[in-house]
Design goal:
heterodimer, A: about 350 residues, alpha/beta, Rossmann fold, five-stranded parallel sheet, four-stranded parallel sheet, 16 helices, B: about 425 residues, six-stranded mixed sheet, globular
């Protein structure tokens, strides 16, 4: 049965992805929900929450707010918070409740900007999609709204687009910086991790962007169109031990289950053979997929894939292991945690 | 930047509940999401939320019918042995929500659950969320359909965050749901149930001995029922003892359906009030309950603690097994100083606030939920009680006091001071 989970728990939703992109940028973030969505985002999907304070709020919607569509009340609450705390922008992240009552998010943006006098962005997440959809919308809106001015190019400066804890599995930007430096990069900015809104505004200074997730691709294309910044695809954040272990199987039949760009990078590191299939629970772009790569739409798809193909090795988050075993898999397994699946982190 | 908002106990009492400041009224401002508020925003992330509570029925399974976001944090406890193979998810997409077609699939999902399990569950709990609240879904009808088709009890659990401040909150409603499978049977005069929590009371609590001294033989609690047959015995009770107001509706429902009357008590930490409650309980049972030994032991424990540590300055939080204001009041009455309390003030808090205000008018009261708490600067305290306080005062000694074994009565007070002694030692 489609969309029925008996082995795994639901993956990180789109509102968590949207929030993740803006988390470190110094704005007021309002999850437009009754409380549960904000609790899930902060208590589970945002590993920085326990260490790094950020102005993340729940709108605290109640049934009559939803029935009456009290947008003015939300803007009033936002205005009070802004007068108390400041903030260089406001972000409103939608959830199932505003999606169902068809809240006019554009109107909320206009009302917010008028009342607060700062940029106000509303992201139309619904809770029915996964984190990557929310991140894609957030990355695009972030650059579209703030990267407007052309600055002089800085020699060798590189922008990293698409890095969030959910995508990379690392919550500290220093972990990512170390890995980038280890491959010879020194003059770079990792957008939204260890950077500020000023770095976004100065995005045109970069000579090149590296896109590490499919969710960041649309924003990279926007920056290419607007500032003629070329981009390349890479995912330089795969733990060494996983590559090392997987390389022992380079001539075997391998299945990698990971977000698309990370999966592709791991395949490349192992040897890029046709014996390696990449599958993902999340977005898949045919332009970056090999023949035979699979978009998994549910547990049944993975079950069938494993039953029909005789893989020697599967590299995936171990949350899927009981499903994999029940599908009759007898080969070897390498656990590659994927935060959006299991909530596990590397650092 | 505004400093964290607070008012003193006196200011709040003088103003009265009707005139509470905006910052202390949760529906008048944005809700700050800090680790200190996790229990408010997402009760299931720590302790019991609707999902986990729904599975209090022994050997039951749960089908969560919702967008993926609502079931996300279930990963936190789904893998524990207690919940293995008990959670299932039917995820909704946009079309489901617009057309309501997901309702047609619930029966098939239940069929698939039954097929996938080696042992037939005792019941299927179907948990629905804000989405179905807004769609006006008649889940009772769907549950009846499932019961008819598969001959298995099926019960709706409502995880409606939108209605959390209603008289019947989701956590009150789910308590009614988990007792709803009980069927009428002959009541036994020496049997009773303790209601209120999803985990058992501390086994050493004096209430068991006191009830036995009044002639009660079988004291049952939902959380101690391991098998569905144990659960069914709950309807043999001659009366229910309700220790948490959130169980009142469930008790009323049992009174109506099963003719089981109920008595209410509160979880209190003031020894004199605990004594009063036991006296009243004895009156209701027609037997005098002699609690003098426990009372004396409690007073002695507190006195020894005070002799050892002097007039400590406390912070008391709201994420704990108790009422923050009542615990603060107890501490003040026992001669300690309460510098600050973190609490969401409701009308019922005023029964303790008035006395607290008279005895300690300068005690500061903060709302964890106020956006200004982003700027909270630590008060000068010696130790804290409460999981939320741990977030604010991580460099100070203190206790979270929110273990799953529920403290109650004199034993709760003694254990509280012993736990404090352990961290201060």
């Amino acid at each position: 049965m489609k969309k029925f989970l008996k082995y795994m728990s639901p993956f990180a939703p789109d509102q968590s992805g949207a929030c993740s992109v803006f988390y470190e940028l110094g704005g007021l973030i309002v999850i437009c929900d009754a409380g549960g969505c904000a609790g899930n985002i902060c208590g589970f999907d945002e590993p920085r929450w326990f260490e790094k304070k950020s102005a993340v709020f729940s709108a605290g919607l109640r049934d009559m707010d939803a029935i009456m569509g009290r947008d003015d009340k939300l803007i009033e609450k936002l205005s009070i918070a802004h007068s108390q705390l400041g903030g260089n922008f406001a972000l409103i992240v939608s959830t199932p409740v505003p999606a169902i009552i068809a809240t006019d998010l554009k109107s909320l943006e206009r009302m917010g900007e008028k009342k607060l006098g700062i940029p106000c962005i509303a992201i139309d997440t619904t809770g029915t999609n996964y984190y990557d959809k929310g991140e894609e919308k957030a990355w695009y809106r972030l650059f579209e709204r703030f990267a407007k001015e052309s600055f002089e190019k800085k020699d060798g400066k590189i922008g990293i687009i698409g890095a969030t804890p959910m995508e990379t599995g690392y919550k500290n930007s220093s972990s990512l910086r170390n890995q980038l430096e280890s491959i010879g990069l020194h003059n770079f900015v990792i957008y939204s991790m260890g950077s500020t809104i000023d770095d976004i505004q100065r995005a045109s200074e970069c000579e090149k962007n590296i896109v590490i997730s499919l969710a960041g691709l649309k924003a990279a294309k926007y920056l290419k169109d607007k500032f003629n910044i070329p981009y390349e695809i890479a995912f330089p954040f795969i733990p060494e031990d996983i590559i090392k272990k997987a390389s022992d199987y380079k001539d075997k039949k391998i299945l990698i289950i990971r977000s698309q760009f990370a999966g592709n990078e791991l395949r490349k590191q192992i040897g890029n053979g046709k014996n390696i299939t990449c599958a993902t629970w999340f977005m898949q772009d045919n332009d970056y997929a090999n023949d035979g790569d699979v978009k998994l739409n549910g547990e049944d798809d993975l079950y069938e894939l494993i039953k029909n193909e005789e893989f020697d090795l599967i590299i995936a988050d171990s949350d899927a292991l009981s499903l994999i075993k029940d599908a009759g898999f007898k080969g070897d397994f390498i656990d590659y945690p994927e935060f959006a699946v299991s909530g596990r982190i590397f650092d | 930047m505004t400093n964290a908002f607070f008012q003193t106990a006196k200011e709040i009492t003088d103003k009265g509940y009707e005139n509470l400041s905006t910052e202390l009224v949760s529906n008048k401002h944005l809700i700050y999401s800090s680790p200190a508020t996790l229990s408010f925003n997402s009760p299931g992330a720590k302790g019991y939320g609707v999902k986990r509570a729904g599975l209090a029925v022994p050997e039951s399974v749960m089908l969560l019918v919702s967008p993926s976001c609502c079931g996300r944090n279930t990963s936190l406890f789904k893998s524990s042995p207690e919940y293995k193979s008990r959670f299932f998810f039917q995820l909704l997409d946009d079309t489901d929500i617009v057309t309501g077609r997901h309702l047609m699939k619930i029966s098939d999902a239940c069929g698939e659950i039954l097929e996938s399990l080696e042992k037939r569950p005792s019941a299927i709990m179907i948990c629905i969320t804000c989405v179905d609240a807004l769609l006006g879904t008649d889940m009772e009808r769907i549950c009846r359909k499932v019961t008819d088709k598969y001959s298995i009890p099926c019960v709706a659990c409502y995880m409606y965050a939108l209605t959390r401040e209603k008289r019947l909150s989701p956590m009150a409603y789910v308590r009614t749901s988990v007792y709803s499978l009980l069927e009428k049977q002959k009541r036994e005069s020496k049997d009773m149930n303790i209601m209120g929590f999803f985990s058992p009371l501390n086994t050493n609590c004096e209430i068991y001995d006191l009830l036995k001294s009044a002639g009660i033989v079988n004291i049952r609690e939902l959380a101690r029922c391991e098998k569905f047959d144990d659960y069914k015995d709950l309807s043999k009770a001659n009366f229910n003892l309700v220790l948490n107001p959130e169980s009142r509706h469930a008790a009323q429902d049992m009174q109506k359906r099963l003719n089981i009357p109920f008595i209410e008590m509160l979880r209190l930490y003031q020894p004199d009030k605990i004594h009063n409650q036991y006296r009243l309980l004895g009156d209701a049972l027609g037997k005098k309950l002699d609690d003098s030994e426990y009372f004396e032991e409690t007073k002695k424990t507190i006195a020894e603690f005070k002799n050892k540590y002097g007039k400590l300055k406390f912070a008391v939080g709201e994420i704990l097994n108790g009422d923050a204001i009542e615990i603060a009041l107890m501490l003040v009455k026992e001669g300690f100083h309460v510098e600050c309390v973190f609490a969401t003030i409701g009308e019922l808090n005023y029964r303790f606030l008035k006395t607290l205000s008279a005895l300690s008018p300068e005690t500061k009261i903060y709302s964890n939920l106020s956006p200004t708490m982003l700027n909270y600067e630590k008060d000068d305290i010696d130790c804290f009680i409460g999981s939320d306080c741990l977030y604010y005062f991580s460099d100070k000694p203190g206790i979270e006091w929110c273990d799953e074994v529920e403290p109650f009565g004199y034993r709760g007070v003694i254990d509280l001071f012993n736990a404090l002694d352990k961290v201060l030692r």
